[in-house]
């Protein structure tokens, strides 16, 4: 059975040994240098030397030997380093776990997301997360792309889940998944009878795209230009609901991520693949470079990573 504190011959605190002295000794042992240990601990080298000397004085033994190149452990120093590092690792782990659990219980997570992701991708993730961590409050901000970034800049959101545009140094980004883009047409549209079409077949039909899909529009225009063809008229809209309404009204054809297109099958639309074009959108998490994330935010992001990885694996298995 594990010995209790009261059964020890003499408490460590009664010997005058301080935790900071053991931490400093272990830093020197790991770095093999007083100066490097001081740098890693963000203290001066004389402070490191003083702490180690005091520990040696209390124990009455020499723990370290200086050579011309580095600091070496004595036999007694090696024994202490092994036991102390094991004990402190266990102590730090349980303290960290307790602090994380406490922070999770007290914090909330605010997510900014563009309408398509806020409506279709994130709700099941948030539901599953809050079932596992009921004490964490998760708030979802349904925003257009510029407003989602503005929420990051102002601190109104902890992070954003968005489609990635050309890189901005203001944000730290993490790719979570990639969506193949497909052509979506009304059920009665002339292209609805085809499983796939070449880009040249688009020239006679107005193309409707969400404003953030400008890069995809440029890809199609480049392919058509190479064939001596002109890009069809393009209508840009601000959000998914407007786009779907225009699609239902037969105002043109559009591009959507495949998973979103599949979920809209019941609207009477048809999915058509584009041949000879690798059209895709990258989605993931964007953070402000200036803000350290809380434990709750880190926890949710890890949960989101696992969820999207599982979805990707299931999609691959069905393919």
Tell me what the structure shows.
The structure is a single chain. The protein has 319 residues and is an alpha/beta fold. The chain folds into three domains: 5-105, Winged helix-like DNA-binding domain superfamily/Winged helix DNA-binding domain (Arc Repressor Mutant, subunit A); 107-176 and 282-318, 3-Layer(aba) Sandwich (D-Maltodextrin-Binding Protein, domain 2), CATH 3.40.190.10; 178-281, 3-Layer(aba) Sandwich (D-Maltodextrin-Binding Protein, domain 2), CATH 3.40.190. It has helices spanning 12-15, 19-31, 34-41, 45-59, 75-106, 115-132, 145-154, 214-226, 240-248, 258-263, 295-318, and strands spanning 64-66, 71-73, 108-113, 137-142, 159-163, 171-186, 196-197, 207-210, 234-237, 253-257, 269-274, 280-288. Strands 3, 4, 5, 6, 7, 8, 9, 10, 11 and 12 form a ten-stranded mixed sheet that branches. A two-stranded antiparallel sheet has the order 1-2. Strand 8 (207-210), helix 8 (214-226) and strand 9 form a beta-alpha-beta unit. Helix 2 packs across helix 3 (34-41) and helix 3 (34-41) packs across helix 4 (45-59). It is elongated. The model is unreliable at 1-6 (pLDDT under 50).
CA-atom Rg in angstroms: 30 Å
Overall outline: elongated
**Structural class per helix/strand content?**
alpha/beta
Q: Tell me which CATH architecture of the largest domain applies here.
A: 3-Layer(aba) Sandwich
What is the terminal-to-terminal distance? 55 Å
Number of strands: 12
CATH topology term of the largest domain = D-Maltodextrin-Binding Protein, domain 2
Structural domain tally: 3
């Amino acid at each position: 059975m594990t010995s209790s504190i009261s059964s020890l011959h003499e408490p460590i605190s009664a010997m005058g040994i301080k935790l900071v002295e053991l931490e400093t000794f272990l830093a020197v042992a790991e770095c093999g240098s007083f100066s490097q240990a001081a740098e890693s601990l963000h203290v001066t080298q004389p402070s490191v030397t003083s702490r180690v000397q005091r520990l040696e004085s209390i124990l009455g033994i020499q723990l370290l030997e200086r050579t011309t190149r580095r600091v070496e452990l004595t036999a007694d120093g090696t024994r202490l380093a092994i036991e102390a590092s094991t004990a402190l690792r266990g102590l730090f782990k349980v303290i960290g776990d307790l602090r994380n659990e406490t922070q999770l219980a007290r914090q909330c997570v605010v997510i900014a997301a563009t309408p398509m992701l806020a409506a279709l991708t994130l709700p099941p993730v948030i539901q599953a997360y809050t079932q596992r961590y009921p004490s964490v409050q998760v708030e979802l901000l349904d925003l257009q792309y510029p407003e989602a970034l503005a929420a990051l800049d102002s601190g109104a959101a902890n992070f954003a889940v968005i489609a990635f545009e050309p890189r901005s140094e203001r944000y730290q980004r993490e790719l979570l998944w990639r969506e193949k883009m497909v052509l979506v047409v009304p059920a009665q549209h002339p292209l609805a009878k085809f499983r796939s079409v070449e880009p040249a077949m688009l020239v006679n039909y107005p193309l409707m795209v969400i404003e953030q899909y400008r890069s995809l529009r440029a890809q199609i225009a480049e392919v058509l230009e190479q064939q001596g063809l002109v890009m069809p008229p393009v209508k840009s809209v601000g959000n998914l609901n407007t786009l779907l309404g225009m699609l239902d009204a037969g105002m043109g054809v559009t591009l959507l991520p495949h998973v979103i297109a599949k979920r809209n099958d019941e609207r009477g639309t048809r999915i058509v693949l584009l041949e000879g074009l690798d059209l895709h959108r990258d989605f993931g998490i964007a953070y402000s470079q200036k803000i350290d994330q809380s434990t709750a935010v880190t926890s949710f992001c890890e949960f989101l990573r696992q969820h999207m990885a599982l979805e990707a694996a299931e999609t691959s298995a069905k393919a």
